[in-house]
Amino acid sequence: MPRWDDGPMVGRAEELDHLMAHVRRAADGRPSAVLLAGDAGVGKTRLLDELAERATTEGVRVLVGHCVDLGDVGLPYLPFVDLLRPVAADPELAPAAAGLPALTDLLAGRPGVTGAEGPDAGDFGRAVPHRSLRPAVDDGRLQLFESVAALLGELTAAAPLLIMLEDLHWADRSSRDLLRYLLARLVDERVTIVASYRSDDLHRRHPLRPLLAELVRLPAVERLELAPLPDAAVEQLVRRLAEQAGCLDRSSVDDVVARAEGNAFYAEELLAAGLEGETLPMALTDVLLARVELLSEAAQQVLRVAAVAGRRVRHELVAAVSGLGTGELEAALAEAVHHHLLVVSDDGRYRFRHALLREAVLADLLPGERVRLHAAVAAYLTANPSAGTAAERAHHARESNDLPAALGASLEAAAEAKRAGAPAEQLQQLEAALALWPAVPDAAERAGRSQIELLVETAGAARSGGDVHRGIALLRSARDTLGQDGDPLLRARVHYTLAQALIWIDDLVGAHRETSAAMALVPADPPSPERTWAAATHARAAYYVECAQDADAAAEEALTAADALGLDSAWADTAVSVARMHEEADYDAVQKRLAEALTRARRSGDLDVEMRVLFNQAIVAYEAGDLADTLARSTAAVDRACAIGIEWSFYAAELRHLQVVAGYMTGDWDVSLAAADQLARVPEMAAHVRAAGLLVQVGRGDPAAADRVAWARSLSSRFGTQVMLMITAAAADIDLAGWAGDAATAVRRAEESVHKVAEIWKVDRMAAVRLVAMALSAAADAADAARLLRDTATADRWVADGERLVRLAAEAVEAYVAGGGLIGAEGRAWQRRLDAEWARLRAEPTVEHRRADAAAFAELGHVYEEARSRWRLAQALLAADERAAAAEELRAAHAVAVQLGARPLREAVEALARRGRIELEGAGRIVETAAVFTPREAEVLALLAQGRTNKQIGAELYISEKTASVHVSNILAKLEAGGRTEAVAIAAQRGLLPTS
């Protein structure tokens, strides 16, 4: 398993800069000291290692001393022996100590004989009296202290000095006294002292506490608290370690980040445990429990009660369950708090300093003790309902094996979660009740519903929480449990509810099968809610499988019955289906119909239908090319979903995705990226929302984009039917490959994705045009490079690949139009892009194609793609020798690239400007070939671009083949290229190819 200190340091740049500022001030003659505090494992040692490396590169001499936990048998001055050992071993430094006989034993590595340890009241657990900063020491110790200070002063005369003392909480008394003396004595020398210690080890009577209180009063001494790493830094660290270990599972990474709570050591151990299949690694458990075992038995009992009760616990509960008397309890709690194992929250509750500490205490409990404590807590909560929630009672009842009470409490907790708008918690409690059902004989009577009804309710909670696959599994279980002899109305309800969920995962054939079964179970006359909903869902499913006549009949029946029964939600749901299938050509008519549907949906109180209407209002605006309205509608709808507690329901997630995409297209990249990146822990079914942020990351050239694209690709492979995730991942992957010059990957990903979309979405396949157009761009770049080298065979192969892709796109458009689809503004823009790239791939003139391409994206309002089109248009204009027009396009594209922070596009625009000798504001001056290459190298480079071998270059320039080889090697080195072809490509990109 790789370690977290194997790679670049993460998350501590600010602290490192702060410490380096101290070092630089000392180098200027202003000595200072930093007391570096932080919990065990938070990263103090790694920060100091980085500081030592950085300081060394700036000419600072670094001496490091380590304190060691030797219990009651401490060795005096051990850290100073450690840090001065290199001085004694260095022939250049040793003479500085030759005139200081008091240091003989210290430099010889004999700390135990340097001076006697005086009594230290703090070491024996008693209060430490105040000492002055210049302690009263005997003559022998004073001579030693003065000698150490003199030696350090001598060393700083040659170079600035950085002294690092690690783990000061383990320092012996003599070392503490010497440190106190040095900090008061070294006032003119070029020295920085950084001493680290574990803040979580400093209990109230720890002997280091009074020294710290004295030292921070010195003007040159600062205390720096190393806080836990932010989640983003922990994620970066964990992803790097996971990738090195060959395990990049997103859910595992998220789990480690959440549990580590900013502690790098914990993160490393948890990741290792995950890879090895453990719950909590033994190494980490031992570290955590070692601190617990130092406490008294009463304090340990308090921790056991608190661990069972939860991470946050009231004083009254601990008092009731622990069995300790008032005085003993208060002393035990004080001990746990003073040893930094428990923390008092603002609301007066006790909580564990770190969640993993609680896990370790729980894991150490014997089974019988754990059951007994859970039963005691459950009894307390039952007797005092205001002291906890139904969810807490359910948990403790389950853990104490009181299953009937656990069932009732779980259902109560689910109802509370639903009222609070928390579908994930509702699902958790309902699934717990389902698990208990077989073990409780009178479960139906206690629950007030059948098992089938509970399954359907649980599936609804799963759908609201964004776990569509779980909801489908529950509905299938309900369907199979009912069998062929179950109540027809309940069976119909299960069938059409299952069909709705199957539509969401694009299993359209399966959805149509389920709605057909529902329709067969319930007669049309008399109208009933079950038949009305079956017809409404069947209309939608039939439309999707191109059974238009059947769909129209079902829709008409559903609308009529819904009006007759006053089922506004069913009417609204059907109206959405009808509006989307029959009135796409009339934007105003569609939005008017949807507005009426929204009114009815809200009147009915059906949140699922309301969110479906809101999504369709936004997607209709998107398809009409009104991106501003799309962004406004999707943002308002997402806010509504959050307000009612269903932010990860299916349509809420789709609206989030639309919000991210619309922000990307309108050029609101920071808003788009924030909307995607703020979703630290999202349901896997909504992974396409986070993946949409990849478009911005790739566009900006973010170094982390490649890892994120790999994650999206792997997740897309796992969820084969999640088309939007697949399309988003493919688009980002193709774009990334295109900027990297990897045309083969771009073409392969486009082909794979287009075929997969065709398998799942038989008709709605317009996304293929976008994917193909993007891949054609990369293929055309590769063909251009081949033609530059006179490699016609390779260029022809890229044309053949492009022709295959163009056929796939044509088939997709044909299927879409044949199915009644109307090509909107976005589809038209990508068609124009495809036409332009296909012409470029075949080496045809592209100016007019590029004008149409740029105009289409400008009409759509896609800021970034319009800028890309202008860049390519400028390329075509330069080829047609229209420099003035090209300059105008380049300047417009460059301004957008700078505004968006689109580094790859900006660099491409600037490279084209250099080749065309066009000045761009803020792009730097044009670099001439002569500024990089010698005249002979320029001649060799020109021949390289024509595909000449070294022998041919030598013959043409009247030099030997060996001399030609030397020139080629120099060119490769200057361009940092790995080969001849790459060198020509880089030179062309940078505008360095000779023009004649």
Automatic annotation (TrEMBL):
Domain HTH luxR-type: start-end pairs: 926-991
Coiled-coil ranges from the UniProt annotation: none
Transmembrane residue ranges: none
GO cellular component: cytoplasm
GO molecular function: adenylate cyclase activity; ATP binding; DNA binding
PROSITE patterns found in the cross-reference section: HTH_LUXR_2
PANTHER family named among the record's database cross-references: TESTICULAR SOLUBLE ADENYLYL CYCLASE, TRANSCRIPTIONAL ACTIVATOR DOMAIN
Protein name per the record: DNA-binding CsgD family transcriptional regulator
Taxonomic source organism: Petropleomorpha daqingensis
Lineage per the UniProt record: Bacteria, Bacillati, Actinomycetota, Actinomycetes, Geodermatophilales
